[in-house]
Amino acid sequence: QVQLVESGGGVVQPGRSLRLSCAASGFTFSSYGMHWVRQAPGKGLEWVAVISYDGSNKYYADSVKGRFTISRDNSKNTLYLQMNSLRAEDTAVYYCAKPSEDIVVVPAASDYWGQGTLVTVSS
Amino acid sequence: SYVLTQPPSVSVAPGKTARITCGGNNIGSKSVHWYQQKPGQAPVLVIYYDSDRPSGIPERFSGSNSGNTATLTISRVEAGDEADYYCQVWDSSSDPHVVFGGGTKLTVL
Asked: Distance (Å) from the C-alpha of residue A86 to the closest C-alpha of chain B?
Protein backbone atom coordinates (compact mmCIF):
# COMPACT_ATOMS: atom_id res chain seq x y z
CA GLN A 1 0.00 0.00 0.00
CA VAL A 2 1.11 3.53 -0.70
CA GLN A 3 2.74 5.28 2.24
CA LEU A 4 4.09 8.80 2.48
CA VAL A 5 5.81 9.77 5.71
CA GLU A 6 6.96 13.32 6.27
CA SER A 7 9.63 14.30 8.77
CA GLY A 8 11.88 17.20 9.65
CA GLY A 9 9.37 19.66 11.05
CA GLY A 10 9.89 21.59 14.24
CA VAL A 11 10.29 25.04 15.73
CA VAL A 12 12.70 27.37 13.95
CA GLN A 13 13.53 31.04 14.28
CA PRO A 14 12.66 33.52 11.55
CA GLY A 15 15.36 33.74 8.92
CA ARG A 16 16.67 30.26 9.62
CA SER A 17 16.48 27.12 7.46
CA LEU A 18 14.84 23.71 7.68
CA ARG A 19 14.75 20.66 5.44
CA LEU A 20 11.70 18.44 5.24
CA SER A 21 11.73 14.88 3.97
CA CYS A 22 9.00 12.61 2.64
CA ALA A 23 9.73 8.88 2.55
CA ALA A 24 7.66 7.08 -0.06
CA SER A 25 6.81 3.39 -0.35
CA GLY A 26 4.28 1.11 -1.99
CA PHE A 27 4.62 2.53 -5.51
CA THR A 28 7.29 3.19 -8.12
CA PHE A 29 8.47 6.51 -6.73
CA SER A 30 10.76 7.24 -9.67
CA SER A 31 7.79 7.23 -12.07
CA TYR A 32 5.75 9.92 -10.29
CA GLY A 33 6.03 13.63 -9.88
CA MET A 34 5.48 14.79 -6.31
CA HIS A 35 3.98 17.80 -4.54
CA TRP A 36 4.41 19.70 -1.32
CA VAL A 37 1.22 21.31 0.01
CA ARG A 38 0.91 23.25 3.28
CA GLN A 39 -1.85 24.29 5.62
CA ALA A 40 -1.48 27.10 8.13
CA PRO A 41 -3.27 26.58 11.46
CA GLY A 42 -7.01 26.96 10.93
CA LYS A 43 -6.56 27.86 7.26
CA GLY A 44 -7.03 26.20 3.90
CA LEU A 45 -4.72 24.20 1.69
CA GLU A 46 -1.92 26.04 -0.12
CA TRP A 47 0.13 24.41 -2.83
CA VAL A 48 3.87 24.92 -2.37
CA ALA A 49 5.80 23.13 -5.12
CA VAL A 50 5.90 20.24 -7.55
CA ILE A 51 8.75 18.25 -9.04
CA SER A 52 8.67 15.99 -12.08
CA TYR A 53 9.37 12.28 -11.83
CA ASP A 54 13.01 12.71 -12.85
CA GLY A 55 13.63 16.01 -11.08
CA SER A 56 14.12 17.91 -14.31
CA ASN A 57 11.16 20.25 -13.83
CA LYS A 58 10.25 22.14 -10.69
CA TYR A 59 7.56 24.73 -10.12
CA TYR A 60 6.83 26.86 -7.07
CA ALA A 61 4.13 29.02 -5.57
CA ASP A 62 4.98 32.70 -5.73
CA SER A 63 4.95 32.84 -1.92
CA VAL A 64 7.98 30.55 -1.64
CA LYS A 65 9.80 31.11 -4.93
CA GLY A 66 13.46 31.92 -4.33
CA ARG A 67 13.35 30.67 -0.72
CA PHE A 68 12.25 27.03 -0.99
CA THR A 69 13.75 24.27 -3.13
CA ILE A 70 12.07 20.98 -3.93
CA SER A 71 14.24 18.00 -4.78
CA ARG A 72 14.18 14.22 -4.80
CA ASP A 73 16.45 11.21 -4.50
CA ASN A 74 14.90 8.39 -6.48
CA SER A 75 17.51 5.94 -5.19
CA LYS A 76 16.20 6.58 -1.67
CA ASN A 77 12.50 7.01 -2.60
CA THR A 78 12.58 10.34 -0.81
CA LEU A 79 11.25 13.81 -1.57
CA TYR A 80 12.73 16.91 0.04
CA LEU A 81 11.82 20.51 0.68
CA GLN A 82 14.65 22.84 1.61
CA MET A 83 13.20 25.93 3.27
CA ASN A 84 15.42 28.98 3.68
CA SER A 85 14.77 32.46 5.03
CA LEU A 86 11.76 31.21 6.92
CA ARG A 87 9.04 33.64 7.94
CA ALA A 88 6.26 33.49 10.50
CA GLU A 89 3.77 33.07 7.66
CA ASP A 90 5.48 29.80 6.67
CA THR A 91 4.12 28.24 9.87
CA ALA A 92 2.00 25.31 8.71
CA VAL A 93 1.57 21.59 8.44
CA TYR A 94 3.46 20.48 5.35
CA TYR A 95 2.12 17.54 3.36
CA CYS A 96 3.70 15.62 0.54
CA ALA A 97 1.25 14.30 -2.03
CA LYS A 98 1.43 11.85 -4.90
CA PRO A 99 -0.24 12.51 -8.26
CA SER A 100 -2.77 9.96 -9.44
CA GLU A 101 -0.91 9.43 -12.72
CA ASP A 102 2.69 8.51 -13.40
CA ILE A 103 5.07 10.56 -15.53
CA VAL A 104 2.66 13.42 -16.22
CA VAL A 105 1.66 15.71 -13.37
CA VAL A 106 -0.57 18.26 -15.08
CA PRO A 107 -3.55 18.09 -14.67
CA ALA A 108 -3.67 15.08 -12.36
CA ALA A 109 -5.20 15.03 -8.89
CA SER A 110 -3.31 13.92 -5.78
CA ASP A 111 -4.55 10.53 -4.68
CA TYR A 112 -2.31 9.92 -1.67
CA TRP A 113 -1.17 12.32 1.02
CA GLY A 114 1.13 11.93 3.98
CA GLN A 115 0.00 12.83 7.49
CA GLY A 116 2.05 16.01 7.46
CA THR A 117 4.80 17.55 9.52
CA LEU A 118 4.37 20.77 11.49
CA VAL A 119 6.74 23.66 10.94
CA THR A 120 6.54 26.53 13.40
CA VAL A 121 8.50 29.69 12.68
CA SER A 122 8.79 31.72 15.83
CA SER A 123 11.37 33.60 17.83
CA SER B 1 -3.33 34.37 -11.03
CA TYR B 2 -6.31 32.07 -11.20
CA VAL B 3 -8.78 32.27 -8.30
CA LEU B 4 -11.23 29.64 -7.08
CA THR B 5 -14.14 30.81 -4.93
CA GLN B 6 -15.99 28.52 -2.54
CA PRO B 7 -18.69 29.38 0.01
CA PRO B 8 -17.18 29.26 3.51
CA SER B 9 -19.94 27.05 4.81
CA VAL B 10 -22.82 24.84 3.76
CA SER B 11 -25.32 23.24 6.13
CA VAL B 12 -27.56 20.31 5.37
CA ALA B 13 -29.83 17.93 7.27
CA PRO B 14 -29.03 14.24 7.31
CA GLY B 15 -30.50 12.40 4.32
CA LYS B 16 -30.67 15.55 2.22
CA THR B 17 -28.46 16.67 -0.65
CA ALA B 18 -25.52 19.03 -0.21
CA ARG B 19 -24.10 21.03 -3.08
CA ILE B 20 -20.75 22.76 -2.74
CA THR B 21 -19.77 25.15 -5.50
CA CYS B 22 -16.39 26.22 -6.81
CA GLY B 23 -16.35 29.31 -8.98
CA GLY B 24 -13.63 30.32 -11.40
CA ASN B 25 -13.26 32.10 -14.71
CA ASN B 26 -14.23 29.56 -17.40
CA ILE B 27 -13.57 26.75 -14.94
CA GLY B 28 -15.50 24.47 -17.28
CA SER B 29 -12.42 24.39 -19.51
CA LYS B 30 -10.29 23.00 -16.68
CA SER B 31 -10.21 19.70 -14.83
CA VAL B 32 -11.48 20.03 -11.26
CA HIS B 33 -10.56 17.80 -8.36
CA TRP B 34 -12.25 17.70 -4.95
CA TYR B 35 -10.80 16.78 -1.54
CA GLN B 36 -12.41 16.05 1.79
CA GLN B 37 -10.53 16.88 4.97
CA LYS B 38 -11.65 15.98 8.46
CA PRO B 39 -10.12 17.65 11.53
CA GLY B 40 -6.59 16.52 12.23
CA GLN B 41 -6.43 14.39 9.11
CA ALA B 42 -4.83 14.66 5.70
CA PRO B 43 -7.01 15.47 2.69
CA VAL B 44 -8.71 12.63 0.84
CA LEU B 45 -9.49 12.74 -2.86
CA VAL B 46 -13.23 12.29 -3.41
CA ILE B 47 -13.73 13.42 -7.03
CA TYR B 48 -11.19 13.81 -9.82
CA TYR B 49 -11.43 15.06 -13.39
CA ASP B 50 -14.71 16.82 -12.64
CA SER B 51 -16.82 13.74 -11.99
CA ASP B 52 -14.76 10.56 -11.53
CA ARG B 53 -14.81 8.80 -8.18
CA PRO B 54 -11.76 7.05 -6.73
CA SER B 55 -12.26 3.52 -5.55
CA GLY B 56 -13.71 3.43 -2.07
CA ILE B 57 -15.60 6.71 -2.38
CA PRO B 58 -19.36 6.21 -2.08
CA GLU B 59 -21.58 6.76 -5.10
CA ARG B 60 -23.30 9.46 -3.04
CA PHE B 61 -20.43 11.74 -4.06
CA SER B 62 -20.65 13.20 -7.56
CA GLY B 63 -19.28 16.17 -9.44
CA SER B 64 -20.02 18.39 -12.39
CA ASN B 65 -18.28 21.27 -14.12
CA SER B 66 -19.56 23.78 -16.64
CA GLY B 67 -19.17 27.43 -17.46
CA ASN B 68 -17.85 29.30 -14.45
CA THR B 69 -18.92 26.83 -11.76
CA ALA B 70 -17.94 23.35 -10.66
CA THR B 71 -20.15 21.56 -8.15
CA LEU B 72 -19.58 18.76 -5.68
CA THR B 73 -22.87 17.03 -4.82
CA ILE B 74 -23.27 14.77 -1.82
CA SER B 75 -26.54 12.85 -1.81
CA ARG B 76 -28.17 11.31 1.25
CA VAL B 77 -25.77 13.17 3.51
CA GLU B 78 -24.53 11.34 6.60
CA ALA B 79 -23.04 12.66 9.80
CA GLY B 80 -19.68 11.25 8.70
CA ASP B 81 -19.62 13.57 5.69
CA GLU B 82 -19.10 16.58 7.94
CA ALA B 83 -15.74 17.97 6.87
CA ASP B 84 -13.96 20.68 4.92
CA TYR B 85 -14.08 20.31 1.16
CA TYR B 86 -11.60 21.86 -1.26
CA CYS B 87 -11.70 22.17 -5.02
CA GLN B 88 -8.46 22.21 -7.00
CA VAL B 89 -7.35 22.95 -10.53
CA TRP B 90 -4.13 23.37 -12.42
CA ASP B 91 -3.38 26.84 -13.78
CA SER B 92 -1.02 26.76 -16.74
CA SER B 93 -1.28 30.44 -17.68
CA SER B 94 2.38 30.89 -16.78
CA ASP B 95 4.44 28.24 -15.01
CA PRO B 96 2.16 25.31 -14.20
CA HIS B 97 0.92 25.50 -10.66
CA VAL B 98 -1.85 24.14 -8.51
CA VAL B 99 -4.69 26.31 -7.23
CA PHE B 100 -6.95 25.38 -4.32
CA GLY B 101 -10.24 26.95 -3.44
CA GLY B 102 -10.56 28.46 0.01
CA GLY B 103 -12.51 25.48 1.30
CA THR B 104 -16.10 24.89 2.42
CA LYS B 105 -17.07 23.63 5.84
CA LEU B 106 -19.94 21.17 5.48
CA THR B 107 -22.06 20.97 8.61
CA VAL B 108 -24.57 18.18 9.03
CA LEU B 109 -27.39 19.52 11.16
From this structure: 21
